[in-house]
Amino acid sequence: RKSFGSTIRRYGYNADLNKYANYDPTTTYPNIVTGTRSLIPGNDGFSDSDNRFLSAFGNLGYTYDSRYVLTLSARKDASNLFGLTTNDKWNLLWSAGAGWNLSNEKFYHSDLLPYLKLRATYGFSGNIDPTKSAVTTIVYGLQTTYTAAPQATISQYANPELRWEKVRMINLAVDFQLKNNRIFGSIDVFFKHATDLYGPSELDYTTGAGSSITKNIASLKGSGVDIELNSLNINSKFKWYSKLNLSIYHDQVENYYDNSIKAGSTVTTSSPVFNHIIGKPLYAMYSYRYAGLDHTTGSPIGYLNGVPSQDYNNIYSSKSNDDIVYSGSAIPTLYGSIGNTLSYKRISFTTQLMYKLSYYFRRQTIDYSNMLVRPNAANPDYLLRWKKPGDEQITNIPSFVYPIVNNREDIYVYSDQTVEKGDNIRLQYINLNYQLDKNVIPSLPVKQINIYLNVTNLGIIWRANNKGIDPDFPQTTIPPSKSWTLGFKLTL
C-alpha cells in the first residue's frame, strides 16, 4: 500500500486577487516580537510511505456422505514492518474445522429434533499495527530557520523484538431445527487466547529515546456464548416470526509486563479505557472508595491505605487496593437483539429491540475546575452541593472552594458514587411494509412494489439507572434524533 502527500505555504495572500507575495528564503528578517533576525519558515513538504504486505492462502474442504465435513485452511502473511530478517517478516496462520451432520446418521431418529449438526474449529489469526515498525525510521521536516539546512527527527526507534500479535480460537457449536421448522438456530461456545499483544513499554529516560516504546507485552483470554434462535410462532393467514440473538462474553488480562499495582489515578476514568490489571476485564470500571463529606467543610473524604482520609495528593498516587473499588465490566457482557415480524396478507410490521446488560458506566457530575473554564459545562449537581453543616446528611456532592484543588475534585468525580449500572433495552427500529404485485393489480407495470415506512432511534424503553441517563451517551444530554424514512422499492 503506497501513499503520497504534500503541503505548501504561501505568504502575503490576497483573496480578492487570488495572488501571493514572493520572498527570499535565504535572507534573514527581523522578528517583531523578539527583535532577532531569522529566516522566514517555509512549510513545503512531501510525504511518501510504502507498506508492503504479502499473503499466501490455501483452503481445503471435504464432505463425505452428507454426514462428515472437514475443512483446513492455512495462510502465510508477511509485512515489511518487521525489519530485514525474513523469518521476522513472515507469520504462519492456520485453522482446522470438522462437522458432523448427526441427523443424517442411520441410527438417528427424532421427530422432535429432525435436524442436528455438530461443529468444531481450532485455529490462529494474526494482527499488526501499521503505524509501528521494527526498524528505526526518520522524518525530514522543515529546514532550520538559522542555516536553511534540512533537518530530520527520529519518528520510531529500532524495535527488533516487535512481532505479530496472535489469537488462538476454539469454537464448539451445534445447529438444530425442531419439528415443522417451528424453532431453529445455533449455539456457539468459543474460547480465545491472545498473546504478544501490543502496548507501551517504559524506557530508561537516559537513553534519549523517549519514555516508552511499543512492544509485545501482554496476553488476554476470553470466552463466550453466541445463541441465535428463530421461531415461527403463528403460521396461518396471520403470521408471527421471532428472532433472538444473545451473546455472553467475558475476558480478563492474563499477563502484562508491568505487574505492579497501579495508582488509583491511572485506573479511575470517565470512559472505558485499557486497564492492565491482571485477573480483571480489559475494560473495567474502577473508582475511588468514597467515605462521604467532612461535616465542617463539605470536603470529600476518600481512603488512604484503607483508612478515611483527606490527603488528596497521596490518595491520588496511592497503590493500595483498599483505596479503589472495582464495580465490574465497563462494556456489556450480555447483549443482543429481539426482533418480531407480524404479517397479514400484504402488510407486514417489524420491530427490533436491542439490549445491553451486565456492565457499568460513570455518569457526568459537577466538575468545578471545568465549570470555571467553560461556564456552559455546569451540571445540575451544582445545586445539590454541600453548603452548610448538616448537608452531608442529604448529599455526597462536595462544597465549592476556590482556588480549585484538582485532586480534591477528582475524589468525588471519579468515586464509586458516580458509577451507575448500564443495563438497558432500546427500541431500535419499527418498519411497516405494504406489498403490491400483479396478482392485485394486473395492469401494474412492474412485478412488485413495496411501500415502506421505517423509524429508527426510537430510544430507551427500560434502563437500570433511575436518573434518566442514556448509558450509550452518558456525557451528553442530547440523544440521537429519531429518523423517519418513507419510500418504495420496485422489482422489475
How does this model look, in words?
- The chain has 492 residues and is mainly β.
- Helix content is 6%, strand content 49%.
- The protein is built from 5 helices and 27 strands.
- The strands form 8 sheets. A 13-stranded antiparallel beta sheet has the order 7-8-9-10-13-14-15-16-21-22-25-26-27.
- A hairpin with a 3-residue loop joins strand 7 (53-64) and strand 8.
- The protein is globular.
- 15% of the residues are buried.
- The model has no long low-confidence stretch (mean pLDDT 85).
List keywords for this structure.
two-stranded antiparallel ribbon, 492 residues, 13-stranded antiparallel sheet, mainly beta
Radius of gyration: 31 Å
| % residues in beta strands | over 45%
Q: How large is the count of helical segments?
A: 5
Which spans have pLDDT < 50 for at least 5 consecutive residues? none
- Helical content (DSSP H or I, runs of 4+): under 10%
How far is the first residue's CA from the last residue's CA? Answer: 41 Å
Quick one: how many beta strands? Answer: 27
What quaternary form is this? single chain
Question: For the report, how would you describe the main beta sheet?
Answer: 13 strands, antiparallel
How would you classify the helix and strand content by structural class? mainly beta
Dominant shape: globular
Q: What's the mean pLDDT score?
A: 85
The strand line-up of the biggest sheet is 7-8-9-10-13-14-15-16-21-22-25-26-27
